[in-house]
Structures are given as C-alpha cells and as structure tokens.
Amino acid sequence: MSFGRLERSGTGRPMSDINMTPLIDVMLVLLVIFIITAPLMAPSLRLDLPQAEGASVGDPAEFVTVAIDADGALYFGEQPLPADALAQRLAEAAKANPQLEVQLRADRGVPYGRVAETIALVQQAGLTRIGFVTEAPASR
Question: Which domain holds residue 80?
Fold first, then answer.
C-alpha cells in the first residue's frame, strides 16, 4: 500500500440508505420562510365587529374598505388616515368608479356619532353604495 492510495475493503456494493441531511435542510428553510411570512398574511387591523344575522351576499366586483377602530381612528383599507385625507382618497376613488361600494367596518365600541360622521364623509365624496360588515353570530 502506497501513500495516498485508498483501498476498498469488501465487495463495493452501493449504499442503499437515504441521505436525510438535504431533506432536513430544505424542511428547516421552509419552516423559517413560513415563520417570517405568517405575520404578514394576517390582517393587522383588529376590530371587534358587531354580530348580526343577515343574508350572505356575494362580494361586489369592486369595493374599498373603510374601518373605524375602537379609538375612533379611520382606516382606508389597512392604512390609517385622518378624515380630510380619507375624504380625498374616497373622492379620487369615486371619480374613477362612481359605482364603487364602500364596505364600512366599525368596531363594536365606536359611538354611533362617529359612524354617522364617516357615512357623511363617504357620501360627500360621491359614493352612495355603503355596506356594513358584521360577524355572523356564533352557532348555538
């Protein structure tokens, strides 16, 4: 036997075991990706919507969401906006599509006066189709 030469002992049969290391590496990479992206998929605006029974109507073709949280802050989609900026965004949306529906999501603790002000703001922007979003009551 000389230096640097490798000799094989045995018959030289191929190894029939599965190498698990690449499989585990891929699984851990996917786990990290899911951990990072999971918070991004959940809506960040948490509202305690009132519960009401009603006919389930299919979503309209085009709509925008206006939300009022428990503190009375206004949101256009997920973006918080002051009332004047919200009115401007709604007016721009009304110019683009006058048949656009506004889906109003108001927290259960919001005073009715704040909801009425928001409805007036939407109507002043030129949008007349307003829908109220609620949660279905829990089954008994």
Answer: 63-132
